[in-house]
Amino acid sequence: MPPLTMSLVLEARRLLEGRIRRTPVEPSPALSEVAGVPVSLKLESLQLTGSFKIRGAFFALERLSETERRKGVVTCSAGNHGKAVAYVARELGIPATIYVPRGVDESKLEGMLSLGAEVVRTDCEGFDESERLAREAAERTGRPYVSAYDDELILAANGGTLAAEVLEEAPEARSFLLPVGGAGLSGGFAFYTKTALPDSRVIGCQHELSPALALSLEKGEAITRLPPVATTAGGLEGGIGRTGFGVLKERIDVVALLTEQEIFEGVRFMLDRHQYSIEPSSAVTIAAVLTGKSGRLDSPAVAVISGRNVALATVRRILDGCA
After folding, report:
1. pLDDT score of 152 more than 70
2. Running DSSP on this structure, what letter comes out for residue 302?
3. Are 147 and 154 in contact (CB under 8 A)?
């Protein structure tokens, strides 16, 4: 596996050119008023397949050998990575088997199936146990396993290319709010941003019931597995990847831990103030600003909105204010 470098990010950018959308950075006057500094939104929720995950999926699958492509790939996903892999696999003619937790969001599940992937819905509540089954299947069948987060290629494409766009579109920004699950986005984003702007401030936003980054920082090593928790923010649940944590441990400035209800308020805020429907996992960055858990923002900020894929039933619950 190639090391995570600025050159690898540049390679990913070249490969993705013309194959994905360059999503906008949009000012948020309402969030700026709360924060006391200009705050903008990087709307990856408008990306192909509804999330940033298409970046890493394209980069990882394009680098497969012809033999690996014929065999097909195995992966595990809380939803967005699986949908992205299904999309790219269809584009490239690669068979794909995707393992998902039992409680996967129904809209994400339908998206994977509609794109022609084989989907295995496990009996596991959480991501970590489902991933174990997926990795065992890959090893048993001799097929490549495509990690959703614990891979330098994924960090370079998912986080690195996203950061490069943000720095070009918002050159004045020095504070960056990122959702943190396995750290495929946040690790790559922090690497690129801290390399280009050493004085920047990186704020990792997590669910308080699954705080893998916070626990890993306390222990000094990656907590790769956590007990499953009941949450609509499935992309934030589970352990953190060793690769991403290896990057973040020296580059993260603040870890904000949000409750389910605070995340729901972030979803409602986006509907009310921006008329965008986003998924709970991506609303964690909005919640961090609204609650002040991001800490004091002393410079222009960008909050990454990572995805929009959420079932109608979940949206109804959020609008009704039910956890």
Report:
1. yes
2. E
3. yes
Q: What pTM, to 2 d.p., does this model score?
A: 0.95
Contacting residues for 95 by C-beta, under 8 A, at least 6 apart: 71, 72, 73, 89, 118
Shared domain for 39 and 61, answered yes or no, is no
What span, in angstroms and rounded, lies between the C-alpha atoms of 213 and 238?
Answer: 10
- 286 and 223 assigned to the same domain: yes
Residue 13, token pair as written in the block:
């950018």
Region 174-184: mean pLDDT is 97
Together in a domain, 123 and 220:
no
Q: Which of 216, 308, 307 is nearest to 255 (CA)?
A: 216
Distance CA 82, CA 72 (A): 14
Does the residue 146 lie in any domain? no
Amino acid identity of residue 143, one-letter, is R
Q: What is the pLDDT of residue 321?
A: 75
Total structural domains in the chain? Answer: 2
Q: What is the CATH number of the domain that holds 166?
A: 3.40.50.1100
